[in-house]
Amino acid sequence: MGDQFNAEEVLKMAEQIEKNGQEFYKTASNSVDDFEVSRLLSDLAEWEKGHEVLFASMRSELSRDEKSQTAIDPYCEAALYLKAMADDHVFKQQTVKALPKLGGVENTKKIIDIAIRFEKDSLLFFLGLGRLVSPRLGKERVYKIIDEEIGHIAYLEKQKSRLNPV
């Protein structure tokens, strides 16, 4: 695998991360007793779905250069590698499955903290990838993904402050 990713590869990872996020937020929504937080998490699952659709749409609009291979990969190992990175790096599946039934304000805060941590990990993941995508291969599209992730963090922080008034 080369030392660069193209925009198509990054957008495929973004789509997988958003799918993983949907599963996390759906499971988390069913794991809290607080109706408002449950709805917030359910809304975030829908937001993730919207981002998945956005990233798929962006991928369908890529130019030939933005889809060009950055390395010779006759066995399509890059796609498998990228899927593994996206699955393991953000919204880890074992974390989703391990969410217990959570009740009370303290546990609700914990689940929001987990969500914020996952969103920050996602942001860092895409910031790192942004350094690996050249302008010719669609660097600007990676910045759009980063902007979306920043919005998630801000939204979660607002909800956390609602639960934890100063």
Characteristics of this structure?
166 residues, mainly alpha
Describe this structure in words.
This protein has 166 residues and is mainly α. Helices cover 74% and strands 0% of the residues. The model has no long low-confidence stretch (mean pLDDT 77).
Share in helix: over 70%
Q: What is the fold-level CATH name, i.e. the topology?
A: Ferritin
Structural class call reads: mainly alpha
Uncertain regions spanning at least 5 consecutive residues: none
Strand fraction equals: under 5%
**Named CATH architecture:** Up-down Bundle
The succession of helices and strands, N to C, reads HHHHHHH
User: Distance N terminus to C terminus?
Assistant: 49 Å
* Average predicted confidence as pLDDT: 77
The main β sheet shows up as: none
Question: What is the CATH domain class?
Answer: Mainly Alpha
**DSSP strand count:** 0
Question: What would a concise description of this structure say?
Answer:
The chain is mostly helical. It contains 7 helices and no strands. It is elongated and about 50 Å long.
Helix-strand layout with pairing:
Blueprint: H1 7-29, H2 35-60, H3 64-67, H4 77-89, H5 93-97, H6 104-130, H7 139-163
